Amino acid sequence: MAIRLEDKKAIVAEVNETAGGALSVVLADYRGVASGDMTALRAKARAENVRLKVVRNNLAKIAIRGTEFECIDEALVGPTLLAFSMEDPGAAARLLKDFAKEKDTFDIKGLAVGGELMDGNQIDRLAKLPTRHEALTMLAAVTQAPITKLARTLNEVPSKVTRAVAAVRDQKQEAA
Predict the structure, then answer these.
(1) pTM as predicted
(2) pLDDT (average), residues 65-78
(3) How confident is the model at residue 1 (pLDDT cuts 50, 70, 90)?
(4) Cβ-contact 91, 51 below 8 angstroms
């Protein structure tokens, strides 16, 4: 089906805007996946702020020019689903990895983050990144540990003095 030039320009502008604000992108071959399953995947993606795009490869190549995802140009072959992570760099990777476990026909072709294209079998590098909430929790725990140790140490000084005074008292009572 032919697409009008105005529609092509709109598609390119939309994908370019999405790519410009994305932290990472995962490319997948979606051939053989039922439309109902794709609808469910899109619903999960919206919940995790992952934008899924199915665009003609020529339009996608034009749209990614000038973004950090120019490196995916060579991977745009055949039917390709683009999953852009908008807030969490690993969100799209986790989403598509889990979906690929359920659907044998769904194949992850590659991923890009920071201007670097990686093979699809390296999806774990991105999928295992902690979420923003998990990272903040780890940071809080690391920050809190020295303060907690300091408080315990400072609390131990009066306890030692109290035990020493009690020992001297007990010693004097026994002597008397």
Answers:
(1) 0.72
(2) 88
(3) low
(4) no
Q: Which residues contact 45 (CB under 8 A, 6 or more apart)?
A: 51, 52, 83, 92, 95
CATH of 5-129, one of 3.20.20.70, 2.60.40.150, 3.40.50.2000, 3.30.70.1730: 3.30.70.1730
**In Å, how far are 2, 11, 84, 133 from 64, measured between CA atoms?**
22, 12, 12, 29
Token pair in block for residue 88: 């969490």
Identify the H or E element spanning 92: helix 91-102
Least confident of 52-56, 144-148, 171-175: 144-148
d(CA 103, CA 133): 29
3-state SS assignment for residue 112: strand
Cα angle: 145, vertex 150, 152; to 5 degrees: 95
